[in-house]
Every structure is written in structure tokens, then in C-alpha cells.
């Protein structure tokens, strides 16, 4: 697999065509094969890129501009449609290559199961890894209707791999009773809110390497209706931006991130992908040192 290949036609605004000189690499994971409600997130990465053309290059929050950094957009990975297991292998192989090349990976989903092979590769490289998970859903099921490969299982798999106390969950407001019991006993669990508990948790994480995974459905449906499993009672886009900036301004060593579950077909206004594109800009400027 060529790491410097652009697999799709459109790219994130201001991205470079020079893979070798780029510190960060954006890549899409167009997979929605295991969703439990509405499909469509496989179209998310391409539409986030398209929405990025409406962004200013400058972030007034961080006083930085993406024209002053070099990053590469590899496009969407070629995933075998309908084959979740092989798709996860392809994602894992690609991310492993990025890490071997010293790149900062920024993934665009796709359903949240796409993050599972990334967690594995990041943990293999950083044995003291901490995971920050911002989402409406706990994603702590062992299986969904008997299927262990489900978008409702990646964080449970991560907990079993790296230990639940290395995982910090924020914004969770949906899940089974068993998931909430498991989270309270095994995870650093901060349900319902994001920014306020982050201020408490970040000093506890310290200077450890951190991977950040964000599900767009942590936002209230009024702010991001374009997602497969919308959940009422969410946070605002302002609070989610504040969370990204809190992480960026802390002592933690962010080593990679992803943004998943944008399903543009359910949002003809395009506000979901517009929010997502702005979040990617802020993560680029805030996380990539």
C-alpha cells in the first residue's frame, strides 16, 4: 500500500502534495457496514473535505494558520465493501505505516468501529497510551446482537486491550445499563458533559501520549443532524471546540486523532460537515506540534 497515494479526488483545504515533508496525514475510512440504525457515514470523509473549502485558513482561537504548516491528505482508503474484518486490517496496516514514517495520523470516518485498529496500532507504539473518547454513546458493548465487530464495541475492545483506567470518556448520554455499570467501574467516566470534566481530567493524564477519538454525535442533533445515530441532549459546537482547545493547550502529548460518524445524507443544510471541517482544522493546528 502506498502511503503517499491520494485515493480520492478532493483533499482538505491547503493540504500539501508532498508526503515526505508532511508532519500530519489526513486519511479517510469510508466504512459503515456494521451500523445499527442509519448508514451513510462512508460518505463522511469526502463531504468533510468538500466543506473545508469554506473555511478560513486562520484560527482566531489558536492564532495559527494552516498555511504555515505542511500536511498531506491521502484521500479515502480503498476498503472492500461489506467486509468489515478485512477493512479493519487495511486501516491498521495503513496507520502502522504512518507511525513507522513518523507521521501524525488524522482519521476521518466512517462508523466508529474504524477506530479499533487505530487504537491497536497506537497502543503498540505507545504502551503508556491514554485514550480520550468524546461521544454520545459509550461504545462499551461486547457485541451487538451477537456481532463483536460493531460500531458499538470499539471502546470495550480498547479497554480490554489497554486497561479501562487508561480511557477517559466524555459526553456519554446513551448506552445499555450494563455499559454504564461497566464504565463506572472500569473507565474514567464523565457522562453528559465534556469541557468542564476535561478540565479536571487533563491534569491527571499529565504528559502521557494521548489518542483523541471524537464521534460527531456528541453534538446535539440541532448542531449536527447528519449522523447515523443522533441522540438528543447533546453539547453545542462551541463546547466541542472548547474541548479541542483544552486538550491542545494542556500538557498531554497528543499522538493522533480521528473524527467519525458524519453521515451527510441526513443533513441537507451541510452544517454537520461544516462543523466537522472546522474541528479538523482546529485539531490540525492544536494537536500537531
Task: Provide an overview of this structure.
With 289 residues, the chain is an alpha/beta fold. The protein is 33% helix and 17% strand. It is built from eight helices and ten strands. An eight-stranded parallel sheet has the order 4-1-5-10-9-6-7-8, with helices on both faces. Strands 2-3 form a two-stranded antiparallel ribbon. A hairpin with a 4-residue loop joins strand 2 and strand 3. Helix 1 (44-52) crosses helix 8 and helix 7 (237-248) packs parallel to helix 8 (271-287). The two termini are 27 Å apart.
Question: Helices, strands, pairings?
Answer:
Blueprint: E1 24-29, H1 44-52, E2 58-59, E3 64-65, E4 71-76, H2 84-100, E5 104-109, H3 115-125, E6 130-134, H4 154-162, E7 167-170, H5 177-186, E8 188-190, H6 195-205, E9 209-215, H7 237-248, E10 253-260, H8 271-287
GO biological process, one term: putrescine biosynthetic process from arginine, via agmatine
EC number: 3.5.3.11
Family: Belongs to the arginase family. Agmatinase subfamily.
pLDDT averaged residue by residue: 95
Indicate the radius of gyration in whole angstroms. 17 Å
Give the count of structural domains.
Answer: 1
The CATH architecture would be: 3-Layer(aba) Sandwich
Which range does the strand content fall in?
15-25%
**DSSP strand count:** 10
**Backbone structural class:** alpha/beta
- Low-confidence stretches are none
Could you say which overall geometry the principal axes of the C-alpha atoms support? globular
Question: H/E order of the elements?
Answer: EHEEEHEHEHEHEHEHEH
The CATH superfamily label reads: Ureohydrolase domain
Q: In CATH's first tier, which class applies?
A: Alpha Beta
Strands of the widest sheet, in order across it, are: 4-1-5-10-9-6-7-8
Terminal-residue CA separation:
27 Å
Classify the helix fraction into a percent range: 25-40%
CATH topology grouping: Arginase, Chain A
Strand count, sense and barrel status of the largest sheet are: 8 strands, parallel
Number of H/I helices: 8
GO molecular function, one term: metal ion binding
Function: Catalyzes the formation of putrescine from agmatine.
Binding site for Mn(2+): 112, 135, 137, 139, 215, 217
Family: Belongs to the arginase family. Agmatinase subfamily.
Amino acid at each position: 500500500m502506498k502511503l503517499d497515494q491520494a485515493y480520492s479526488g478532493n483533499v482538505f483545504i491547503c493540504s500539501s502534495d508532498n508526503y515526505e515533508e508532511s508532519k500530519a496525514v489526513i486519511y479517510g475510512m469510508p466504512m459503515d457496514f456494521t451500523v445499527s440504525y442509519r448508514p451513510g457515514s462512508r460518505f463522511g470523509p469526502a463531504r468533510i473535505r468538500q466543506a473545508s473549502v469554506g473555511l478560513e485558513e486562520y484560527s482566531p482561537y489558536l492564532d495559527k494558520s494552516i498555511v504555515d504548516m505542511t500536511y498531506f491528505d491521502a484521500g479515502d482508503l480503498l476498503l472492500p465493501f461489506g467486509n468489515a474484518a478485512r477493512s479493519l486490517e487495511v486501516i491498521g496496516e495503513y496507520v502502522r505505516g504512518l507511525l513507522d514514517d513518523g507521521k501524525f495520523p488524522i482519521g476521518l470516518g466512517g462508523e466508529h468501529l474504524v477506530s479499533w485498529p487505530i487504537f491497536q496500532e497506537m497502543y503498540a507504539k505507545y504502551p503508556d497510551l491514554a485514550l480520550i473518547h468524546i461521544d454520545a454513546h459509550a461504545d462499551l458493548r461486547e457485541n451487538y446482537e451477537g456481532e463483536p465487530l460493531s460500531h458499538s464495541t470499539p471502546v470495550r475492545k480498547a479497554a480490554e486491550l489497554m486497561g479501562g483506567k487508561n480511557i477517559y470518556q466524555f459526553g456519554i448520554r446513551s448506552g445499555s445499563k450494563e455499559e454504564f455499570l461497566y464504565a463506572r467501574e472500569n473507565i474514567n467516566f464523565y457522562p453528559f458533559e465534556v469541557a468542564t470534566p476535561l478540565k479536571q481530567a487533563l491534569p491527571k493524564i499529565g504528559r502521557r501520549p494521548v489518542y483523541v477519538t471524537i464521534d460527531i454525535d456528541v453534538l446535539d442533533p440541532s448542531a449536527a443532524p447528519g449522523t447515523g445515530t443522533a441522540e438528543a441532549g447533546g453539547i453545542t459546537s462551541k463546547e466541542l471546540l472548547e474541548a479541542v482547545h483544552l486538550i491542545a493547550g494542556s500538557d498531554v502529548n497528543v499522538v493522533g486523532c480521528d473524527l467519525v460518524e458524519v453521515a451527510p445524507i441526513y443533513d441537507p443544510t451541510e452544517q454537520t460537515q461544516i462543523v466537522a471541517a472546522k474541528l479538523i482544522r482546529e485539531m490540525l493546528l492544536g494537536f500537531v506540534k
